[in-house]
Structure formats: C-alpha cells, structure tokens
Write a structure and sequence with these properties.
By secondary structure, this protein is of the alpha/beta class. Helix content is 17%, strand content 31%.
C-alpha cells in the first residue's frame, strides 16, 4: 500500500458555459440536487449531490464547449442501480433532446454483463450511465471495444 493510503473519488468539477442550463440538465434530467451555489469573482458555481453527498461541482467559467482532443477529462461515468434505471435515464435524456453516441444500451464489450448508455451534456461533455450487470444480450459497438468510453 502507498504511504498516502487508498484514495477514492470525492467529487468531479466540470467547467460549463451556462450554469443555469447545466443545472437544469444535471438536476432535472439526471436527478442531482443542488447543495449550494455561489460566485467567485466572475465565475458562478454550484455544488450538486445525491442524498446530501457532493458528487459534482459545476463552474461557469468556460468560454467554449468541451473539446475531446484536449488533455483532461475523457468522459464521466455514473453507475446506476439497475438496467431499468439506465433505461429511465435514456428516456429522460431523449425527451430533453440529448445526443447519444449509440442508440440504446450497449455492452461494454461483446458478451459482457456490464453496459450502459453514452451521451453528451449541453456543453458536449461525454457522459456514461452504466450497470455492472444486466446488459447481457446487448450488442457492443465494436467487437474489441474497451470496457468503457465509446466516444
């Protein structure tokens, strides 16, 4: 074990171009609650969570949309409790006009039990909602696909 011990993810901070639009997406569509809001200089921010636990911070300080070719975040993945929850998220996202990388639930690799949906937030940030089991029978986007990140 490392001298610093075991680390776990506490929360993820995302730069956004429009805080109100992103709050509606992450709150109304994905179900995160706003735990707090504020401003620092010209940047506005919000803390989002579930059951009082901080999960995301949104910072309105980006001047342009997400760019996959830049160093930094590749995608942000959330784990759902069941495949039914993934499908409910897909329905809510479709109603909101979200863009998807693939149609429907896809397996993480051919024959895998894990899988999910891959989509974009209003700024183009790549997101995933998946389950560790329950996606048996779903097709994979590629025969030799990685276990995540089909973008």
């Amino acid at each position: 074990m490392s001298a610093i011990g075991t680390l776990t993810t506490h929360h993820v901070g995302l730069n956004v171009t429009d805080l109100d639009r992103s709050l509606a997406f992450y709150g109304d569509v994905l179900g995160f609650e706003t735990l707090g809001k504020g401003a620092e200089g010209e940047s506005r921010y919000a803390f989002l969570g579930q059951d009082g636990r901080l999960v995301l911070t949104l910072w309105e300080q980006a001047g342009e949309a997400y760019a996959p070719a830049r160093a930094g975040l590749h995608h942000l993945a959330f784990e759902a409790a069941s495949l039914d929850h993934v499908r409910a998220a897909e329905t809510a996202l479709t109603a909101r006009g979200a863009t998807f990388a693939y149609e429907g639930v896809v397996a993480h690799r051919e024959g895998a039990a894990s899988g999910g949906i891959f989509f974009h937030d209003p700024d183009g940030t790549r997101l995933e909602i998946s389950v560790p089991k329950g996606a048996e029978g779903a097709d994979a986007p590629h025969d030799t696909a990685p276990t995540c990140g089909f973008f």
